[in-house]
Amino acid sequence: MFSNCANPKCSVPFEYHLGGEFFRFPHDHPDADTAEHTHGVIHFWLCRHCCQFFTLEYRDGRSLLQAREAQEASAQAGKIAGAILIP
Questions:
Q1: pLDDT tier at 53, thresholds 50, 70, 90
Q2: CA-CA distance, 12 to 14, in Å (whole number)?
């Protein structure tokens, strides 16, 4: 579980009433730790301020902080090129 904003440059402590944006990503267990009928989920939170400028992606077992402008520009480029983008 998280205790602060996922932005490493932000120190806002998590408090539900402060708002922000929650992220939930599937997370694979190492084979030795996998119990039958289980799945892993990892959670992150960006505070109200940070979520205006950033979003999170989860790749290769790591959370990546990405500027919203870059994500929107990438999505727009994909639409122009006719690519199918998966959020």
A1: very high
A2: 6
Note the residue count of the chain.
87
Provide the token pair at 40: 């892993």
* Closest alpha carbon to 72 in 61, 85, 58: 85
Q: What integer best gives the mean pLDDT of the chain? A: 75
82 token code pair? 């006719």
Region 32-56: what's the mean pLDDT? 81
Q: What is the DSSP string of 26-73?
A: E-PPPGGGPPTT---EEEEEE-TTGGGTEEEEEETTEEEEEEHHHHHH
* 13 SS3 class: strand
Give the pLDDT mean for 23-51: 77
